[in-house]
Specification:
The chain is of the alpha+beta class. It has a domain of about 260 residues: 3-Layer(bba) Sandwich (FAD/NAD(P)-binding domain). It contains twelve helices and 22 strands. It binds flavin-adenine dinucleotide (FAD).
Length: about 400
Amino acid sequence: MVERDPVIISGAGPVAMVLAVALYRQGVPFIALEMLDEPFVDQRAASHHPPTIAMLNELGLAEHMIAEGLKSPVYRFHDRVDHEMIAEFDLGDLKDEVEFPYVLQYEQYKLVRKVIELFGHDPAFDVRFSHTVTGFEQFDDHVMVKAELADGSVETLRGSYLVGCDGGRSVVRKGAGIDFAGFTYPEKFIKIGTYFDLTAHDDRIAIRNYFSHPDEWCNLFQVKGEPDKPDIWRFVVPMRVGETEEEAKSEESMQARLKRFFERDQNYEIAYANVYTVSQRVASTFNKGRVLLAGDSAHVNNPIGGMGLNGGIHDAVNLAEKLAAVWKGEGDVELLDLYTRQRHQASTEFTQAQTIANKKQLEERDPVQRKKRLADMRAMSEDKEQAKAYMRRAQLIDSVAATAAIT
Ligand SMILES: Cc1cc2nc3c(=O)[nH]c(=O)nc-3n(C[C@H](O)[C@H](O)[C@H](O)COP(=O)(O)OP(=O)(O)OC[C@H]3O[C@@H](n4cnc5c(N)ncnc54)[C@H](O)[C@@H]3O)c2cc1C
């Protein structure tokens, strides 16, 4: 059947905007409804892995991101207890296998902003802010979606399909009664951004770093500042179980956290700080009738390894191709089941497995196990073939290849 109604997207975050560009380029009309009144300056994701950059390149987005972001071919693992660098992985070693042999540091809010800057002038690129999706009804050949506006009035929109790109607490997933099994970590994570240039003080620090420590593991990544500002170093560390957001974000506590990492007399200049509740969950299905899920509405994971948004972008690109075919009457509706089979497996077998393993690797408490893990990591980095195999897993290259093979 050839559809007439637009695809309705709940949310205008990064996954929604990539899906919107992919549908737009295939001539499929859409309406994206975003509850906020403007794009959110969201300091979560920044790392884009090689297959993701390739997908964004196909959509005409990568060149802008590369020009404005930071290329990071190398990443390092450190032992925070003994102040020792353990391992270095160089994506340049994969240059014959991938088009973009580096991780690109470019924050998710810049991606959303860029999409709107590039496409927002066209009325067909229909993104509506201050529209909170509150519910929907499915029928055989359409969906009816309810959105509440800033003034409290309610609009009902008719669509062909509804895609939930509305994050971990997705109203669409809940409304469709789709299970979101998994667990939430007892400790929250805090991200602190500082302008203090750590590379000037320790040349072992790369753009992307992971530090192992039994009590306070750490991720440390550099991102490019806004045009008139210096670059920012983002620390992500676990909070104590039971520590409140207010306690963790107090000036004293943030300074103490940063000074434990790198002692200095003066205080750090803090650009921003955010506290996150972190879970590992995957939706039982990514499609139910005319309702689809992509991004955090379908799966959430810890940020160690930078995989959540990458997986969400892989969902969006995969889904757009299938949904466009179905919408145009050129493909069977069964393609939407294939979307679930492919992306559900990518989520559980790659992203979930890898991020859980990444956290265990960094937080190991048993001293003997800890030494063994660090020694294994070092040995793997020193063996070219093992290092390449590791990077294929950690950069989601294997995930994309395995997904494509599912029929
Ligand atoms: C500290 C941290 C660091 C991270 N770093 C990385 C990284 O480097 N790489 C990576 O790949 N991932 C990373 N992630 C994960 C990444 O941030 C998420 O996977 C990503 O934001 C998911 O994008 P999304 O568009 O699916 O959801 P979101 O970014 O949550 O966007 C959802 C959008 O929907 C809107 N919305 C919600 N409900 C409604 C509604 N009812 N109606 C209308 N609009 C609605 C929201 O306002 C929002 O704009 C990190 C996460 C954290 C916590």
